[in-house]
User: Fold this.
Amino acid sequence: MQLTTNDLVISWQDLRRRPLEENTNGWRSRYPIPSNNQILLAVNQEGNPALLLREIGKVNTPSFRCPELDVQLIKLNDAYGANTYLTIVCQNIELEIVFALVSVRMLDQVCKGQSALTALEETLKEFRRLLRGQSEISAEKAIGLIGELLVLEKLLNISSSAWRGWVGPNSDPRDFRFGSCEVECKSSRNSQDPKVEVHGYLQLDPAEGQTLSLAHIILDSDVNGQITVPSLVSNLLPIVSDAQGFLDQLEKVSYIHDHPKPWLNHTYTLISLGIYMVKDGFPRLTANSIPNGLPLGITSLNYSIRMSYAAPYRIDVNDWLQAIKEEIYNEI
Assistant:
């Protein structure tokens, strides 16, 4: 049986309710993960959630340093006698959900045959990434994700499986991809002269045989605004064909559904959502603009587009949805 994030949280809550035991070396209680008696769930005397890994070989604990986690080697008496355990304790109870999330991934990898030590290394990397993302939610990051979710909301009107075409979180150069149709999303704040930022001079230069649409979302920062990342996610979850798969995509962009607080400070009102066909004449740079590539020593080139110059390429959103409907059905 595969454990879930919720299973771990409930287990830690259960352990906290148990009475203190004698000779537990500072641990309130512990019990083994089903099907793997080398990994224990535990809470310490302060009630902090923890994982205990038994008999994992030689360990250099300083290499496992991680903010908000305490990693140590300790000796514990268990059913097998005195054994060495590597303990991983989440020191901030408010991060229990995040800790449970990465712990589930680690346990899944161990069950698939990966060594506990290797799985732990990957878990700590993931925890650092999620922690960094949770503590550094900028307005730019929030409006970028809001824009993509607003576009996804429209695509889900075609198919509940359209979320599978949301490939940006997979480090794809496009935000959405359906067969030969590619979609790039750009969000900007409301202004008299809206602009979008293009990252890389080839970002709006589709490969041969591909068509590229640009979705431009204009948002107004509003303390009373009804649009936030958590509100959009809550609206989309009942619609998508695979809620867990969708949540997994969100986690790749540092959004954890059970820990939405860092995103709640960013509230907006939607001003407009426009679709533009990126083709000959659209204001952009392409490979033909710089036929010899970037000059030696220049590693990247970002630029801005004044969207008023793109007005002739704007199309009706419903016409756009109709045009890509067949590609969505074929792809998913």
Observations:
- The first strand starts at residue 27 and ends at 33.
- Residues 116-135 form the longest helix (20 residues).
- The chain has seven helices and twelve strands.
